[in-house]
Design a protein that fits this description.
The chain has about 425 residues and is α/β, with parallel strands linked by helices. It is about 40% helix and about 20% strand. A six-stranded mixed sheet has the order 1-2-4-3-5-13, with helices on both faces. Strands 6-14-7-12 form a four-stranded mixed sheet, covered by helices on one side. A four-stranded antiparallel sheet has the order 9-10-8-11. The chain is elongated and about 85 Å long. It starts with about 25 loop residues before the first helix and ends in a 15-residue tail after the last helix.
């Protein structure tokens, strides 16, 4: 299927499936709530878009979101465990389950909100407000926990927050992500597992003209490592990704460099596959040190798991989408990218669909074209649709205990049942 383009008519929609969704009375309240808030939500999104902030620097976004949630009746904690994290909580009645939602905030260097985190952030807000409206109108007990998560772009903010207990109250956690894709489609693809490796070579300086034989060239070691990995790519699967860059200081052409640093990323569809490829890549680094006579220090600094889409949650989302809104896609989404939500989905029941927005050719995530796409009215309409579907899934968690138990024992992709999923 072709990607949705800005010139395509958004009023052309795919045929819907027949049948009834779970608790249509709940979905009716959700739709009315989000439709009524659409202008407020878009104004908030564009405000965030106009003030892009890098990881751990999301102070403007922190203040904008917390003020908005306070205005709408949530109990807000600012600077929640991390300086730019926050949490907004709504509780109705006594007892009940807790619906967790994530709102991301950070932008990218030089290209702003080129991953559409302004849309992700307001989607979390929309889901939380719609759930609150349904709980109030239909007298449903439970809790909504909206967590503002900084530093998705390389800062691993969600992992830090999980370790500090920010997810402890949640029974499930939901969020979404804009991507290129077919018109009015919502994607249930996974992502790639990811690892960051720092490689540091230590050699010995020498005069490059007078006595180069006295040196041990750390830059040569790095070049060898780069070439070794380039050759290795012929023998790794096309679904795996290995990328690296050089770094150095005080280099000059008349001095044999005594130090060189490289940063590498290794990705694969599963964590176990990524670890296998990482071992082979590490051998490339070690061989370069041996050949050049340099010492090497290899440090694995971080690991992100692939997203494990909870099957019960995903099936419920698909049912709502196919009967009320559009199509479900298993080819697009952010399947070749990586996110810290993958680790959350390993630790608790999680759902992280992608949703298609109109994009120009070669204007996918992390491009200036996508930055512009994340502003459009049609992109916001698509964001509200996935938010309605996610809110419906979340409300089933709060109202159907048998469904929640099914969520809790859904097998992960590696066929291991994590019985600690449910509180």
């Amino acid at each position: 299927m072709m990607a949705w383009r800005p010139e395509d008519d958004p009023n052309i929609r795919p045929p819907l499936q027949e049948g009834q969704v779970y608790r249509p009375d709940i979905l009716d309240v959700i739709e009315t709530s989000i439709d009524g808030l659409s202008e407020e939500l878009r104004a908030l999104s564009l405000d965030i878009h106009d003030h892009p902030e890098l990881r751990f620097e999301e102070k403007y976004a922190h203040d904008a979101y917390t003020a908005f949630m306070e205005k709408h009746g949530f109990i807000v904690t600012k600077n929640h465990h991390l300086e730019t994290a926050w949490v907004a909580i709504y509780t109705h009645g006594q007892g009940g389950r807790a619906l967790g939602i994530n709102s991301e905030m950070d932008a990218l260097p030089g290209i702003g909100h080129a991953c559409g985190h302004n849309l992700i952030g307001v989607s979390g807000v929309a889901v939380a407000l719609a759930a609150k409206a349904a709980m109030e109108k239909l007298n449903i007990d439970g809790k909504v926990v909206l967590l503002g998560t900084p530093a998705e772009e390389g800062g691993f903010g969600k992992i830090m927050l999980y370790e500090k207990g920010a997810y402890d109250e949640m029974d499930v956690c939901l969020m979404c992500h804009p991507t290129p894709g077919p018109r009015h489609s919502i994607s249930l693809t996974s992502t790639l597992a990811f690892s960051t490796i720092i490689v540091e070579y230590q050699g010995h300086t020498a005069h490059a003209g007078l006595s180069p034989w006295e040196g041990r060239n750390a830059l040569d070691a790095a070049v060898l490592a780069y070439n070794n990995v380039s050759l290795l790519r012929q023998q790794i699967k096309p679904t795996h990704r290995v990328q690296g860059i050089f770094k150095g200081k005080d280099w000059a052409p008349n001095i044999i460099p005594d130090q060189a640093k490289m940063e590498w990323l290794v990705r694969a569809p599963t964590t176990s596959e990524m670890e296998d490829t990482r071992r082979r890549v590490t051998a490339c680094f070690e061989a370069a040190a041996l050949a050049s006579g340099c010492k090497v220090r290899i440090t694995v600094t971080s690991t992100l798991n692939e997203i494990t889409q909870n099957k019960a949650l995903g099936d419920e989302l698909a049912d709502v989408v196919l009967k009320r809104y559009g199509t479900i896609d298993y080819e697009w989404g952010i399947k070749s990218a990586s996110t810290d939500f993958g680790n959350i989905s390993y630790l608790m029941p999680g759902l992280h669909p992608g949703f298609a927005i109109p994009t120009i050719p070669d204007g996918g995530n992390h491009t200036l074209g996508f930055t512009e796409s994340a502003r459009s009215e049609v992109s916001h309409d698509a964001c509200y649709v996935v938010s309605k579907a996610l809110a419906a899934v979340g409300m089933r968690v709060l109202t159907d205990e048998a469904f929640l138990q099914k969520v809790c024992v859904t097998r992960r992709s590696n066929n291991f049942v994590l019985t600690a999923f449910c509180r």
